[in-house]
Amino acid sequence: MLKFFRRIRKGLLSENKIGKYLLYAAGEIVLVVIGILIALYINNLNTEKQDSITLNGYLHNIEENIRSDRENLIKIASFRDSSVIGSKYFMKMIEQNSKEQYTTYFTKYFKYNPWLDESFQSNQSGFEALKNSGYLNKIQQTDLETQLYTYYSLVEKIKDEEQSLNNFMEEMEYDMYKNNIVQRTKPLVGKLIRQKETKEDIAELKRILAYPAFVGSHSRNSGTGYMNDLYEQLSVVADNLLKEMNR
Prior knowledge:
mainly alpha, 82% helix, rod-shaped
């Protein structure tokens, strides 16, 4: 092909047809420019295709993270429900102080006690990878970007609320260990469950359960139903986000 063009140029020059040569040269330049533009267009298409594949890969990882989050939400919401119910039961129980209520509390509700360091664990690896990759600007000013930030902002709010709650419970638990409350409670509860308790044991247990840190923990925990409202909000946002990602 190049030899063909050279022959044409030589022929035009040898015949001293300068005007036609210049016209030919201009046409050749146009053809070269068109060829470059076509190559750039094809390259851009390939780049956009590869970018789309890469972005979808990041979004797929986020989608998997969110599906995992939803399972964790179900677990923590179930725990929080039972824990709140248990603490409310405790608050009523210490007003009535019956042996039967003590037995019910320690056999049914104590496994959801407020000192367990339970919290919602969100997997944010996909979102962090997307932010660090630079591909986040591919979805700037879109509903998807808005919903992503809404979701992970709510995740952070839940994290802060749970951290505050757990920090308070750790302080109460430390107080009870420091003042020998936990150590005194265990043998009494063991005798209660085995139905080996005495009147003196019940009286002692009553005094222990009225300890300020014991009562304070359950009083604080009984009012944490708002956490389940946050979990529900996050679940709704997750549903909307997954729908948006699958468009």
